Amino acid sequence: MSDGASHTQRAMRFSSKGYYGLRAVFDMAFYQPETVVQVREIARRQGIPVRFLEQILHDLKKVGVVKAKRGPGGGYRLSAAPEDIPLAEVFEALEGGIQVAPEGTASAEGDPVGAHVVDQVFHGLTDALVNALSQISLQDMCKKGQQIQVEKGPLPGYSYSI
User: Fold this and answer.
1) In whole angstroms, what is the distance from residue 28 CA to residue 82 CA?
2) How do residues 88-123 score in pLDDT, each as one tens digit?
3) Which stretch of 3-7, 27-31, 146-150 has the lowest confidence by average pLDDT?
4) Would you say 21 and 62 are in contact if contact means Cβ atoms under 8 Å apart?
């Protein structure tokens, strides 16, 4: 039944908050998994506005994905090892849950039986997406980063000389 269209033409979208949040926790897991990292560092490496990133990290802190350290040398770090943080946890915290749903709802007009069937299909898709995101950890993302040879040496933007 496929018409040969590429997957990029049928994209399901998450909010910028979910997308940037995932990039931020990936950054912490990939570059500095066991240490505190400043918001500015993550923002610079990932191209995320600092103020928006602060809001995202605050939300992730409220649900326990990250921990914060105040004061000089303060910042954020992951609250668990990367292999213990599933992507579903990040998305649920930032998106307010995960749900596959149509943009509009046809249940108010048209065939209510058809709408019920379509709703059931979307519930099944939601369950499958939650299950898939629960099976992928930040560690899996780090492995993918290594596979595609993301630079892991000195942090981007820093140069050291003696």
Assistant:
1) 9
2) 999 999 988 777 776 555 555 566 777 888 888 888
3) 3-7
4) no
Show the beta-strand stretches assigned E in 29-140: 66-69, 75-78
Burial of 53 (0-12, 13-18, 19+ CB in 10 A): buried
Query: How many CB atoms sit inside 10 A of residue 160's CB?
Result: 5
pLDDT of 144 reads 95
Domain positions in the chain are 13-147
Q: What is the mean pLDDT of the chain?
A: 84
Whether pTM exceeds 0.85: no
Q: How far apart are CA 103 and CA 9, in angstroms?
A: 16
The fold of 13-147 is Arc Repressor Mutant, subunit A (1.10.10)
